[in-house]
Amino acid sequence: MSKGLFQGIGRNVVVSELDRLEKSGNYVAERKFDGIWCSCVSDGRRNVFESRNGLAKATGLQRVRLPEMVIIGELGFGQEEATKRREEIGHDFMDVFDVTSVMGTDVSHLPLARRRRILEGIWKKLPSELTEHYILAEQWNDHFEERYRDIVAKGGEGIVLKDISSSRGYIPGTRTDEWMRCKKHFPVDMVIMGAEVSSAASYAGRGMAKNLLCGVYNAGRLVRTVKVGGMSDAWRLEFGRNIAEYVGQVAEIHCWKVFKTGSLRHPNFSRIRDDKDADECTIESLIEADRKAG
């Protein structure tokens, strides 16, 4: 089974860094896919998919037999963009961007550039029935900023940069700074409605907040839409002990995306906005912030 095969992205970069990284000649870029990360283990007869949280359902893909291999990618499920693409394609799909084993031979120790050549060689020989379901991710070595802005303008998350000059192999259970992401990241303002106290062992007995409970006004009614983490221990302690003093105040929150419901993707607390009234925090203001960030 593939449990523990996940290798994570080490850090984020901002748009202003893309030109420098491109000119270095050390990086390639791929689309940041908006689906469910998974590995697919095939013995040539059966495909088994596993996400970071356990076995993943991909019924349509299980019927499309792959050669014996272990590939890494994202299933077209879970998020808004992935669901839209699945509807457009008309069937289940997996975006494939790495390989760790081929015909029983481990290739995970090989550098990224070698693993990519192996993938491309395999995909050239696969029948269209397979390549329509298992889509090899495009990889670019130019126009990083232009590609980023085009992807975001069309509703995508951004791009991932990978260091092809590195000799490092694929190491499960780690995060590597040789893989970086550039994603739309922007602030929104929301009303604090409460907090959840953490039960984590490191916070036990200290009364520290796990999450802020935040919302916005929708049709004149304050509606809770998101739980916000990503704060310092000082703020966790402050909100955990004195949340009643902050209920009704405005918090600036940084996120990657605003969903139609008013929920946020990867929300992180930034600061208290003493200069803003709660009634200015509306569902419309969230959607407008997302639009401008794109």
Can you walk through the features of this model?
By secondary structure, the chain is of the alpha+beta class. The chain has two domains: 8-183, 2-Layer Sandwich (D-amino Acid Aminotransferase, Chain A, domain 1); 186-293, OB fold (Dihydrolipoamide Acetyltransferase, E2P), CATH 2.40.50. It has eight helices and 18 strands. Strands 3, 4, 5, 6, 7, 8 and 9 form a seven-stranded mixed sheet that branches.
By CATH, the superfamily of the largest domain comes out as: DNA ligase/mRNA capping enzyme
CATH architecture of the largest domain: 2-Layer Sandwich
- Low-pLDDT segments: none
Task: Give me the Rg, rounded.
Answer: 21 Å
CATH topology of the largest domain: D-amino Acid Aminotransferase, Chain A, domain 1
By secondary-structure content and strand pairing, the structural class works out as alpha+beta
Helix content: 25-40%
Give the averaged pLDDT, no decimals: 89
For this structure, what is the CATH class of the largest domain?
Alpha Beta
User: How far from one another are the termini?
Assistant: 39 Å
Number of strands: 18
Number of domains: 2
Q: Note the overall shape.
A: elongated
What fraction of the residues are assigned to beta strands by DSSP?
35-45%
Largest sheet: 7 strands, mixed
Order of helices and strands: EHEEEEHEHEEHHEHEEEEEHEEEEH
Number of helices: 8
List the keywords:
294 residues, alpha+beta, D-amino Acid Aminotransferase, Chain A, domain 1, OB fold (Dihydrolipoamide Acetyltransferase, E2P), 2 domains, 36% strand
